[in-house]
Amino acid sequence: MDDWAEPGAHEVADGVFRIxxxxxxxxxxxxxxxxxxTGDGLAMVDAGWxxxxxxxxxxxxxxxxxxxxxxxxxxxxxxxxxxxxxxxIELRRRYGTRVGLGHDEAPGLHELLEIASNVPVTSLVQxxxxxxxxxxxxxxAVTGAVEFEADAWEKPDTxxxxxxxxxxxxxxxxxxxxxxxxxxxxFHDTAGGLLFAGDHVLPTISPSIGFELGEWELxxxxxxxxLELVLARPDAVxxxxxxxxxPSAHARVTELLEHHEVRLAETAxxxxxxxxxxxxxxxQSLTWTRHRRGYADLxxxxxxxxxxxxxxxxxxxxxxxxxxxxxxxxxxxxxxx
Length: 337
Ligand SMILES: [Zn+2]
Fold this sequence. Notes:
- By secondary structure, the protein is of the alpha/beta class.
- Helix content is 36%, strand content 22%.
- The chain has helices spanning 54-63, 82-95, 106-115, 121-129, 133-144, 219-231, 249-274, 279-285, 300-319; strands spanning 10-13, 16-22, 30-37, 42-45, 72-77, 98-102, 158-160, 163-167, 170-176, 185-189, 194-198, 237-240, 287-288, 293-294, 323-326, 333-336.
- It has a 7-stranded mixed sheet, with helices on one face. Strands 8-9-10-11-12 form a 5-stranded mixed sheet, covered by helices on one side.
- The model has no long low-confidence stretch (mean pLDDT 94).
- Bound molecules: zinc ion (ZN).
- Zinc ion binds next to helix 2.
């Protein structure tokens, strides 16, 4: 186990600091936020999760390199998930920080504010389509009981569009990389050879796909295209939101593309073995996480992620003409063609 989550401000390039902020009770351990000197205070890529400890942690890390959270002028947020977005809103409240978020996150945020609840309704639709309404009910009960933090979910100041943003002496190009979420952006400093990758490219795990609110046709197909998009750009140092930085974004993207091809092949093999069946049954026949755990060993939340990921792979097999879907109110049945 490496020590990437060690608190502090770790300089990754001239005037650019990686700051891991602890994520309590979460398998990801920490979220990396990146602060850079602009000549007029600081700009950040991602802000972190607003918890009782995250702001003091950010402040202490910045103090060690002669800065403070109060001097953060702008935050460029890669996507809407709480571990990236909600501390930005708190920074704005305290220090007037400007918050930018990808404009394709607008529908998801709109829906979240509308339902004002932590119930992942879109994923529950997918669970029912996957033939596991019981799991959908269980997740709805658990998440519905958690108080919704309305003040963590205000709108950003700016809806960011793909294109170039001048950040001090650096130019960050916002690149639309839908997949992990619809409006996910990576920020590419081409001249400096840095890729602020958010959760699009993570060094040791493959990011969950399409876990957010709002209807979405083919999140995995979009994700694979977004990986190809990174390969088509100049290579850069990988600065991920979870895990240690790496020397080559391209190297990791190539691995992730291979991972999904293997996963698609495994999914097809299970379909071949089981005959026409539901996504839930396929998910239960696959192994999960890089430690290849059985589905039965996963908690309810991770069973949901696993099942949604399985139906996303089945949808791509259908898109590629390898499988067919027969709709049924009790759950779609998939088969090889
Ligand atoms: Zn994240």
